[in-house]
Predict the structure of SHOCT domain-containing protein.
Amino acid sequence: MGVTGSSSRREYKGRNSTLFITDTGVIIQEIRRAFKPKIGEITIPFKSIVEVHFRKPGFGTEGYIDLRIAGTPNYSSRIRRTHIVTFKGKKMTTLFEEAKSLIEQQIAKSVNSDQIAPQKAQTGSNDVVSQLERLATLKNKGILTEAEFQAQKQKILAGKF
């Protein structure tokens, strides 16, 4: 267990899955266990990640990093399970804190990047609302400054995003 990889792809091996952080998103690959069917691998672009939850391991409990995905209901344990990587120990806690920080930085870059394709004028109001909610979440977590938030909000409201 640990972290390996180049600057363009970092690998964090947890207890149940391996987390890969690339330039464009996160890949979670399940670690095959003897009596457990393999779910496989899921690729999540940074622009789809709404929130990153992190919990340090406690006495008798595992720590985890949980990626909340836009449009995924939080109450569905089957769906959420594929977005969680668990870990134990102080060394792993430090590594996964680094992973959390890196993911949040990449999310902020994806929000500020001009590489995000502009949406068409016929985009529904639900898309605008979800984009504004995502921006508010990033601002509340301290990933975006107030000025960045306001600039991105104006772009969304003007239909330039």
User: Anything to note?
Assistant: The first strand starts at residue 3 and ends at 6. The CA atoms of residues 71 and 126 lie 11 Å apart. The helical segments are 77-81, 90-112, 125-140, 146-157.
